[in-house]
Amino acid sequence: MFVALVLTAGSMNENRYLHAVETHTVQPGETLWSIACGIYDKGVHRDVREIMFDISTDNYITNGEIFPGQILRIHYFKERN
C-alpha cells in the first residue's frame, strides 16, 4: 500500500488538515464498506456511506462491485495530530 500525504493550502483553519492520497489493492473478501470503515478508522470521521461514495466516484465504480487485485485510489482529508 502506498500513502502520500500533502498539506493543503489555504486559510489557517484549512492547514489543520492533511490531504492523503492512498492506493489500496482489494483483498479477497473486502467490500467498499470494509475499505471505507478502514478509512474512517484512520481519523476521517465522516459518514462511512459518504466515504464509500467518494471511493466509487474516484474509481469509476458504478455498480458497487470491486474485485480482488483491483487497485483503488483513495483521497481523504485527515486532521493533523
Q: Can you tell me about this structure?
A:
The protein has 81 residues and is an alpha+beta fold. Helix content is 26%, strand content 30%. The protein has helices at residues 32-41, 48-58, and strands at 2-7, 17-25, 71-79. The longest helix is centred in the middle third of the chain and has 11 residues, at 48-58. The chain starts with a strand and ends with a strand. The model is unreliable at 1-12 (pLDDT under 50).
Secondary-structure element order, N to C:
EEHHE
Q: Percent helix among the residues?
A: 25-40%
Q: What would the average pLDDT be, to the nearest integer?
A: 82
Strand neighbour order, sheet with most strands: 1-2-3
Major sheet details: 3 strands, antiparallel
Q: If helices are DSSP runs of H or I spanning 4 or more residues, what is the number of helices?
A: 2
The fraction of residues in strands falls at 25-35%
Q: Calculate the terminal CA-CA distance, rounded to whole Å.
A: 22 Å
Radius of gyration: 13 Å
Low-confidence stretches: 1-12
- Structural class by helix and strand composition: alpha+beta
Characterize the overall form: elongated
The counted number of beta strands is: 3
Layout of helices and strands:
Layout: E1 2-7, E2 17-25, H1 32-41, H2 48-58, E3 71-79
Antiparallel strand pairs: 1-2, 2-3
